[in-house]
Design goal:
Chains A, B: Its cofactor is Mg(2+). Chains A, B: One of its GO terms (molecular function) is metal ion binding. Chains A, B: Belongs to the FPP/GGPP synthase family. Chains A, B: InterPro entries: Isoprenoid_synthase_dom_sf, Polyprenyl_synt, Polyprenyl_synt_CS. Chains A, B: It holds the Pfam family polyprenyl_synt. Two copies of one chain form a homodimer. Chain A is mostly helical and 341 residues long. The first copy, chain A, has a single domain, classed as Farnesyl Diphosphate Synthase, CATH 1.10.600.10. Helices cover 74% and strands 1% of the residues of chain A. The first copy, chain A, has a two-stranded antiparallel ribbon with strand order 1-2. In chain A, strand 1 (101-102) and strand 2 (105-106) form a beta hairpin. The two termini of chain A are 25 Å apart. At the A-B interface, helix 5, helix 6 and helix 7 of A face helix 5, helix 6 and helix 7 of B.
Chain lengths: 341, 341
């Protein structure tokens, strides 16, 4: 149990600065919901949820709500719910990709098999909606809760569209930035956007505030995915836990590769196409790909673009009153483009 | 497209008597929601949903709502939503069991692979909640809609608990009637119960009416699962599409087997245990198992028990005003225990 304490979690996955308090409160509530001595399903779900990762989405929902007026215990179930959906989709992702590792531990699939992983992922997704509905019992107006259900369900469907579209791009180094961004907006952006918008809705934000937080989440999601794609090339693999090999081995046209393909000469393009077609083993190709990303300036350009998304995200927050929550959302944005893991 | 017409569907899967009108209206709305020329996800989801099966759960939700006062277009999205959840869970079931056939056609897994089946099942489940939320846009009070979300999400989680528990019973011929019934109440009963209760909630039923419809759905679910388990032994395999082999091959302690184990002598028990342990191939064992079910009277006892559940279900309906919807719900109960497929 001690390894699941908020402190241990924070040590293993440094959260964005200043999110500690919101995180701790939410994690304490999460802890009681999936008891370690519960039924089999509860125990496996707990294994998937804890220790928590960055726990960004719950913090985004809770702070978006607080930034427009309401926060605290009334919002907490919905904030946790977004994490249930996110983790449920990760559990299913690992089934789809056959990934044996998640957050440095055996994935649910590796530990419990495909059948349990499919069922537990489903249960986590369902639990999101049960959790959101609880906000009405805690006194939030039912109309807001229904709207949050609608927003989050639509995001869940978008996420699925994004996954199928990503599979279609697989191996296609020349897919182009536009298609890359469209997939990223669905696969990653949808849930960031929905977390912020649902928070704004539940918190009773004005239509302008809801729009601002939705756009903030959208830009933040883009920045986050861009940084995720950049990590294998700019970070220390030992720190990031991303070896750079997994994206290449899965033949994913990630952000810097798409940018590089656009800028490279014929030989450079041919290299990227051969690697993503699977003709060259990922381990052999990594060095040459990294060199190409530097030589073409793709790495610098991709980092610059991620910073622009962060600036755009922060710009949206001007619509909100100056509160500690707004400051926190600004810092989360900075963190998203600079994080080393 | 013609093979998806309501008429063709009805011919392939005879619905319960008198549900034709409700079915047709709902199927028409479903047809427009998952366009045949839509995105890849929409097309695969459409393949999973149409032609529809018995389509019992949507009819139960819609007629439960109508039986307590409200019905029609305001309720339709939620009614369809229950089918989305049900079919999503079937798509995932086929991944888990490796089943290549569903309703006489290749399963989504067989046709599109594991990855697409996992993602499309997820999307169908999410779509349920988006659909339920729509009822508020169509004028139903938000408080009722939130309560329906809560009921249906809880049922979805129960369904997952039931699937894990069923896996634990696998191979255990002597698990006993009590444990069998507990699993059935979660795996099948939860969604029948939730469909009826959510209908009663959305329709604005009194607490007593909500209770009555919840219990009706519970008994109906039991009867339905019992009949499903009995079909391989009482029906014509050519008609039922259930060969009797799949349950045995999957080493499932189905209803008649559990009853037979309780009544059999030592040799009979040993036979059942050996078959469910996988020591005897299902195809070889089917005849001997069927003979044992008859000799011990287990078949007759199991059929009698299913009829009792139907009677209990119908008894619950006395709480409702005498309307054509109540009559229809009575007929659905009769159908559930007598159906030949």
């Amino acid at each position: 149990m001690t390894s699941h304490s908020p402190a241990a979690v924070a040590a293993a996955h440094p959260p964005p600065p200043d999110t500690g308090r919101a995180r701790d409160l939410l994690l304490r509530e999460l802890d009681g919901r999936w008891p370690a001595d519960g039924r089999r399903l509860d125990r496996i779900a707990r294994y998937a949820l804890l220790p928590a990762g960055k726990f960004l989405r719950p913090v985004l929902l809770a702070e978006s709500a607080r930034a427009v007026g309401a926060g605290g215990a009334q919002i907490a179930p919905a904030a946790l719910g977004v994490e249930f959906l996110h983790v449920g989709s990760l559990v299913h992702d690992d089934v789809i990709d056959g990934d044996e590792l998640r957050r440095g531990r055996p994935s649910v699939m590796a530990r419990h098999g495909v059948a349990d992983a499919v069922v537990v992922g489903d249960a986590l997704m369902m639990s999101m909606f049960a959790a959101v509905a609880e906000c009405a019992e805690r006194g939030l107006p039912a109309g807001r809760v229904v709207e949050a259900v609608r927003v989050l369900a639509a995001a869940g469907v978008d996420l699925c569209h994004g996954q199928l579209m990503e599979a279609e791009l697989c191996g296609d180094a020349g897919c182009g930035l536009e298609r890359y961004l469209a997939v990223s907006a669905l696969k990653t952006g949808a849930l960031f956007r929905a977390a912020c918008l649902a928070g704004a809705v539940l918190g009773g934000g004005t239509p302008a505030q809801q729009r601002a937080l939705r756009r903030y989440g959208e830009h933040l999601g883009s920045a986050f995915q861009m940084r995720d794609d950049l990590l294998p090339y700019v970070g220390d693999a030992g720190v990031t836990g991303k070896s750079g090999l997994s994206d290449l081995a899965n033949r994913r046209p990630t952000f810097p590769l798409v940018v590089a393909h656009d800028r490279a000469d014929r030989a450079g393009r041919r290299l990227l196409e051969r690697v993503l077609s699977g003709a060259v083993p990922a381990a052999e190709a990594l060095g040459a790909v990294a060199a190409l990303l530097r030589r073409t300036g793709a790495l610098a350009a991709a980092e610059e673009r991620a910073r622009q998304e962060v600036a755009a995200a922060k710009g949206c927050l001007a619509e909100l009153p100056a509160t500690s929550s707004r400051t926190l959302l600004e810092r989360v944005a900075d963190f998203s483009a600079d994080r080393a893991r």
